[in-house]
Specification:
This protein is of the alpha/beta class. It has a single domain, classed as Dehydroquinase, class II (Rossmann fold). The chain contains five helices and five strands. Helix 3 (51-61) runs parallel beside helix 4. The longest helix has 12 residues, at 127-138. The structure holds 1,3,4-trihydroxy-5-OXO-cyclohexanecarboxylic acid. Residues 10, 71, 73-74, 76, 97-99, 101, 108 line the site of 1,3,4-trihydroxy-5-OXO-cyclohexanecarboxylic acid.
Length: 141
């Protein structure tokens, strides 16, 4: 099974960025443990701060992988193009967020990608990614 994880803008700063909201762990250290926990899964990881680069990667991986776990970060709330890219590919995409976007500022309450994704895990800290991976492994969507 092949699972890709794609992170959007500012998530390269996890561990340094607003630790009260996003925690003290870098994504790289979390990802290292996550990949060890599922040795049967072939993982790939991509992060970009650029909307078009995220779209290009969805196009590249979106016909080949068994599932994509996507934290589109702030583009979640603005990007019709990312929603369209998810609709355009055949690989199921799971939306994840570290923080509970529905308990934060009102501009975060809207997700432009929610309807295009097969399911969402929101507000479980970094464990949102694990829930996304497990949903893909178990095909629970
Ligand atoms: C986030 C929530 C978004 O609102 C925010 O812009 C992010 C991270 C999260 O994982 O909690 O960058 O997607």
């Amino acid at each position: 099974m092949k699972i890709a994880i794609i992170n959007g803008p500012n998530l390269n700063l996890l561990g340094k960025r607003e630790p009260g909201i996003y925690g003290n762990s870098s994504f790289e250290s979390y990802y290292e443990q996550l990949t060890k926990d599922y040795p049967e899964v072939e993982f790939a990881y991509f992060q970009s701060n650029h909307e078009g680069a995220l779209i290009d990667k969805l196009h590249e991986w979106g016909f080949d992988y068994d599932g994509i776990v996507l934290n589109a970060a702030a583009y979640t709330h603005t990007s019709i193009a990312l929603g369209d890219a998810i609709r355009a590919i055949s690989t199921p995409v799971v939306e994840v967020h570290i923080s509970d976007i529905y308990q934060r500022e009102s501009f975060r309450h809207v997700s432009m990608i929610e309807d295009a994704c097969v399911c969402s895990f929101i507000g479980f800290g970094l464990e949102s990614y694990r829930k996304g991976v497990e949903a893909i492994i178990r095909k629970e969507f």
